[in-house]
Amino acid sequence: SSDALLLASIEQEIGALGVCGGQMTVFQSLSPARFSGVSSAEGKRVIGDMRNNLDRQVKDAQAQQQVLQEEIQGLSAQIDRLNYQRGEYDRQRAQAASVYQQLTLQKSVVDNILRQSGGVAAVSADAVKAKPVSPSARMAAIIGGVGGFFLGALAALGLDWLKKVKRNA
After folding, report:
1. Residue 31 in 3-state DSSP?
2. Is the model more confident about 144 or about 14?
3. Contact call for residues 50 and 10 (beta carbons, < 8 A)
């Protein structure tokens, strides 16, 4: 009868600690026969040890939970960055595919023109200027005059500077 009371007391203490799941099965294997001949003080010490052990396990589990939550947050941020990068790569790939399609179409048009013309491409008359492009004599004279003016002014300043240097030396 005292063993049954001790076992009931142990089960009550375990229930008060909020132990559940797999941990409870460890204590369900306790039988009154195991505690036969154990004094009340010894039973209380066992219960105290069990409570301390369970408290330690709960604190360890809470600390581990905190570490895991921080890891989850870090991994979630990393997933967000990777998803953003994947979106950027998908946009770039789509843009590159569009450019590739345009270039392929242009190449096929040029290939068709070359095939139709026997390998020689004809140049449109609109693309060729009727009057050749050459420098204008009038423009050359104006540029030469302005350049000569600047060279003359630079030479005059240089000579004036040399005279001042010789006088001061």
Report:
1. coil
2. 144
3. yes
Q: Which amino acid is at 131?
A: K
CA distance 63 to 54: 14
Lowest mean pLDDT among 11-25, 91-105, 122-136: 11-25
The closest of 51, 56, 54, 61 to 13, measured between CA atoms, is 51
Nearest to 27 by CA among 56, 53, 59, 60: 53
Distance in angstroms (rounded) separating the CA atoms of residues 57 and 26: 14
pTM, 2 dp: 0.38
Q: Residue 105 — φ and ψ, nearest 5°?
A: -65, -45
Report how far residue 3's alpha carbon sits from residue 8's, in angstroms, rounded to the nearest whole number.
8
